[in-house]
Amino acid sequence: MKQDFPKLGIGLLCQLFGKTRHAYYDALCRKERSLVKEDIILQEVSNIRKQLPRLGTRKLHHLLGKRLLSHNITIGRDYLFNLLCDHNLLVRQRKRKAMTTNSRHWMKKYSNLIKDMEITRPEQVWVSDITYIRMVNQWGYLSLITDAFSRKIMGYSFRMDLTAQGCIDALTMALNNKTYQEPMVHHSDRGSQYCSSQYVKLLLQNNVAISMTENGDPYENAIAERVNGIIKTEFNLHSSMLGLGQTQKHISKSIANYNALRPHASCDYLTPNQAHLKTTILKKRWKNYQTYSNPKMTVQSF
Prior knowledge:
Elements: H1 10-16, H2 21-49, H3 57-69, H4 77-86, E1 125-135, E2 138-147, E3 153-159, H5 164-177, E4 184-188, H6 192-195, H7 197-205, E5 208-212, H8 222-234, H9 244-261, H10 272-275, E6 292-294, E7 297-299
Parallel strand pairs: 1-4, 4-5
Antiparallel strand pairs: 1-2, 2-3, 6-7
Helix pairs in contact: 2-3, 5-7
């Protein structure tokens, strides 16, 4: 036979736990305010990631600061990590690699001119590299030229082949976007595209010194490798289910957003466009972070 239990009022329940009714309702209000705060933060994160789809948590924390001030909300970095983790919004790193460099060729190779160089201004050093984007049943290749000081992508080209033409197109765009007249160095790996007669001729015609890696070590071209990773990882460009034309539009939009919106810790948290206007040395605000751990999951933060 079912036994009927008396319904206990809030007042009696509070007495049983040694709390006042005021404390109970105050806790409800705090919980409601906390949920509203989380909703606002997650909405602002969503707004940012519409243009910067896979931006890391530390960059998000920097960008959220000004946005949340209008809501009278301040948050710490660890709070944001935990909140994004609870909602499965932390960014996972991908590890994929395809060969885009062929340095076993007969063409002339050049020495590394930037090994001990201090980079102090925009357009002092441009770094170049090629990265792959997987398309439906084929590969596309993205050539990038980046300013080493500001991290601004100065020129790019996306083609379905690994000929020198993609690199030439990217270099031509970069030269057209050049704004300073001081001497400049172009640094790349020893791939056949960068050693081709047409590419070398274009550099020399524009009085650009030629520098190349010497040992095949990716750290010799670390800035270019890093920008490749950012463009592919944070803008969902590891692969594309679109056609060539739509993929090219996606790349153009992603690079425009990267230059205009994404802050860099190595450039005093300025965007590449902002940093490119500076003529003084920029403060480095990055650290070597350890892997971020949470009882629920583990990701590599960046």
